[in-house]
Amino acid sequence: MTRPAIGFIGLGLMGAAMVDCLQTKGYRLTVLGHRNRTGIDAALARGATEAADAKSLAEASDIVMLCMGTSAQVEARMHGPDGVIAGLAPGKVVIDFGTSLPGSTRELGAEVSERGAVMLDAPLGRTPAHAKTGQLNIMAAGPKDSFDAVKPVLDDLGENVFHLGPLGTGHTIKLINNFYGLTMAAAMSEAFAMADVAGIPREKLYGAMSAGPLHSGMMDFVKAYAIDGDPDRLAFSIRNALKDTGYYTQMVRDFGRETVMGGCVTAAMDRAVSDDRGDDTVPQLVDSFTRWFAD
């Protein structure tokens, strides 16, 4: 079977690892340059082609993949005379692997549809290390027939590939997922800082809490730094966490509601970023709570 030609935009840590995986599995890649050329140059060295702009990348590709940091960045690459949408034709598929606002995704999907193409949202779980070995969790949504058509490619990238519903459902679930996980991480960070204030060794607190139903992977990510000194078990920055919790709040408002819990975790992330700790990983939030309690 002939493998589809793939265009990839967004070769940061995650995107570069995904491109590496796809090239290892024999796909022909066209990539788009970025200020940080580390991932681009590595892909070119493995045989990828560099596009002049997003339009020409889309013209050369059967599937256009984006792995961008924000909805604004996705929109910028999609729109304009040199954007992805301008280069689309009937039968092409666009996949947004980033964590984007569902409302933005649905609007872009309508514009893509006008070109006879299809858009899927497929936010990711797990890490760049999993991306390199094709073991991501992929939360895809959009027309089921289009999902089925590209699923062999998604299966090469992911160990667990889900179809969750109509366009925007993947991003909705990802934002709920990240809100919940980041709320747990912030709560566990405060719990360790409170143990310090109370004179209780952190390992004693963890031992008691982890023996019961509170035990979770997120608890262990925070523990890995707070007790063991490893900040990279969850290599996700506080700055990116703030973006995601802000998107969650916006999504709730788009549904005509106000979040009750989201304000707390967003405030914690925002305060840490304001303290110039935005590049810390989320488990290092415990250091921020420790400083705040000491003030």
What does this structure look like?
The longest helix has 30 residues. Helix 8 crosses helix 13 and helix 11 packs antiparallel against helix 12. 53% of the residues lie in helices and 12% in strands. The chain is elongated and about 65 Å long. The protein has a six-stranded parallel beta sheet with strand order 3-2-1-4-5-6, with helices on both faces. Strands 7-8-9 form a three-stranded mixed beta sheet. It has 295 residues and is of the alpha/beta class. The protein has two domains: 162 residues, Rossmann fold (3-Layer(aba) Sandwich), CATH 3.40.50.720; 124 residues, N-(1-d-carboxylethyl)-l-norvaline Dehydrogenase, domain 2, CATH 1.10.1040. The model has no long low-confidence stretch (mean pLDDT 97). Strand 8, helix 7 and strand 9 form a beta-alpha-beta unit. It starts with 5 loop residues before the first strand and ends with a helix.
Low-confidence stretches: none
> What's the number of structural domains?
2
What is the fold named in CATH at topology level of the largest domain? Rossmann fold
Q: How would you name the CATH homologous superfamily of the largest domain?
A: NAD(P)-binding Rossmann-like Domain
Major β-sheet strand ordering? 3-2-1-4-5-6
Elements, N to C (H/E): EHEHEHEHEHEEHEHEHHHHHH
- Tell me how many strands there are: 9
The CATH class of the largest domain turns out to be Alpha Beta
Rg to the nearest angstrom? Answer: 20 Å
